[in-house]
Design goal:
Distance between the termini: 89 Å
Structural class: mainly alpha
Number of helices: 9
Strand order of the largest sheet: 1-2
Oligomer: single chain
Strand content: under 5%
Order of helices and strands: HEEHHHHHHHH
Number of strands: 2
Length: 247
């Protein structure tokens, strides 16, 4: 069987007709899995072909577009070749007088995804705080989860044997090693005069120079923490009163 693989045999079964190029009245497309001939051509032939395409390109028929063209404005290559001051002036013009675009034409069915992530990130921090408190106090009641997969009954097959660790099974008596023998040295007489001569020097408390700076920084950080916490609490109280309509 020429020009057919095992996958093609499943698509096009063998035919008893004399014409091997047709099966059930349908032509069999030739299947060629060999690399193109241009991959194995020598370097000089590829160079001559590139020069011929540059000097005398082939005349192709006009391109027929079946889709609707979209005006994208300035091409990306031309936009990258513009000097830097042109882009600055263009950005300023877009800010002062933005271009009025036609309404967006949607060809697909929109899906309600709620609030976008960019809009969620643009909110202030107290909005997310109140939303989290509301979700904790009165969580949203969601419908029951509809699972399409079947649960696995036997995760561990019955043919498996679970064996504990050998250290948990072996029971041996506790072994206590004897203490190290003490070195037997002859007792030396203590001299009272030598003991009195050794004067106990009082230890001087050495104050590190960085400890005072560290304590000062900790004290200042606690003061700043109290200020910011009081400021946040005042903002929360103001928002609650504003929402209640008292302000």
């Amino acid at each position: 069987m020429a020009h057919r693989s095992n996958a093609a045999e499943a698509w096009y079964p063998e035919s008893t007709s004399a014409n091997l190029g047709e099966v059930s009245g349908q032509p069999i497309p030739p299947l060629d899995l060999l690399p193109p001939s241009s991959l194995t051509q020598p370097l000089w032939r590829s160079l001559i072909g590139n020069l011929r395409d540059t000097l005398a390109p082939a005349k192709l028929p006009p391109l027929t577009l079946t889709s609707r063209p979209v005006a994208v404005g300035l091409a990306l290559g031309d936009r990258l070749r513009l000097p830097w001051f042109r882009t600055v002036f263009t950005n300023i013009g877009d800010v002062l007088s933005p271009e009025s675009l036609p309404p967006l034409e949607l060809e697909s069915r929109p899906i309600d995804v709620g609030e976008l992530i960019a809009d969620q990130l643009s909110h202030f921090w107290w909005g997310s705080l109140l939303r989290s408190l509301a979700d904790r106090v009165a969580p949203e009641s969601l419908p029951a989860l509809d699972l399409t997969a079947k649960p696995v009954e036997d995760i561990i097959p019955k043919s498996w044997i679970l064996l504990p660790l050998w250290s948990e099974v072996v029971d041996t008596p506790k072994v206590f090693y004897p203490d190290k023998p003490k070195s037997l040295e002859p007792s030396r007489p203590l001299s009272v005069q030598a003991a009195e001569a050794i004067a106990v020097k009082p230890e001087r408390t050495v104050v590190e120079p960085t400890s005072a700076d560290l304590l000062r920084d900790i004290r200042r950080s606690r003061i700043r923490q109290r200020i910011w916490v009081s400021f946040a609490a005042a903002q929360v109280v103001y928002m609650i009163l504003a929402a209640a309509g008292k302000l």
